[in-house]
Amino acid sequence: MQTNPALAERKQRIDSNMSKIKHKIVVMSGKGGVGKTTMSVNLAYGLSLRGYKVGILDADLHGPNIPIMFGKEGVKLSRISEPLEITENLHISSLSFFVPDNSPVVWKGPQKITAIMEMLEGIKWGEIDYLIVDLPPGTGDETLGIAQNIGTDSKAVIVTTPQKVSLLDSTRSINFAKLINLNVLGVIENMSGFICPDCQKEVNIFKKGGAEKMAQEKKTDFLGSIPLDGNIVESSDNGLPFISNDSLASRRMNDIIAKVIEKTEKEN
Predict the structure, then answer these.
(1) Of residues 39 and 115, which shows the higher confidence score?
(2) Is 34 annotated among the ligand-binding residues?
């Protein structure tokens, strides 16, 4: 079977681009609505606050929301090669920088793969410590295309909520990651308990602890849990990662980041 020379050359350029990045982490979820993008944003921002050079690639082509969570909704860029600077240590790139606002992306599989390859090839992150890739939910074309092209040393973080339907889908994500040789760093349980702001009583709206049990069954590390917190929604809507606030959620997120750093640095 002959190799397409153009595709082979593109793959070489992608490999060269990705080789400058020390750690590449894809953030996955088995289903939508579990807070995957919120976890991606706060993981990246928290790493940048600790002095690491970080990039975020918004690879959710149908719902590119990373810019909104940094207060950059409506920003347009003329060149794909230059990611947008959020801070000295943090840069982001998203399809939303290059398409009209509120326009749906109506693409078939090959068009999605082409767009992903262009982003992996064209965005010049430079020599950075971490690239966080916010994937679309599920295990479709985009997820497979990115996982097969960002490098064999790539890692995955799985985000789920505690209820059974989300845990079942997240189990499939873990199986998928292992099938394509992504190193699974661990599982985050989001929306894990709600602390009443008035009485301080914890209410497990979506149950609690299911992700930790699932991680044990899949022989995967449990990174931690993030509770439901009204400040998370308010911060995200205002373009400010919730990890910058002093709250139970931010402290839990910092604990998760510490584990991610420990695991990635140990492997390196």
Answers:
(1) 39
(2) yes
31 annotated as ligand-binding: yes
Residue ranges making up the domain that contains 95: 26-267
Q: Tell me the per-residue pLDDT of 230-263, one tens digit each, with 9 for 90 and over.
A: 888 888 888 999 999 888 899 999 999 999 999 9
Work out how many domains the chain is built from and give that number. 1
Does this model's pTM top 0.90? My answer is: yes
CATH of the domain at 156: 3.40.50.300
239 is in an annotated binding site: no
Q: How far apart, in whole angstroms, are the C-alpha atoms of residue 250 and residue 253?
A: 5
The predicted pLDDT at position 1 comes to 47
Let me know if residue 146 belongs to a domain. yes
30 belongs to an annotated ligand binding site: yes
Looking at residue 259, its pLDDT comes to 97
Q: Half-sphere exposure of residue 93, counting CA atoms within 13 Å on the CB side?
A: 23
- Binding residue per annotation — 35? yes
Residue 3 lies in a domain: no
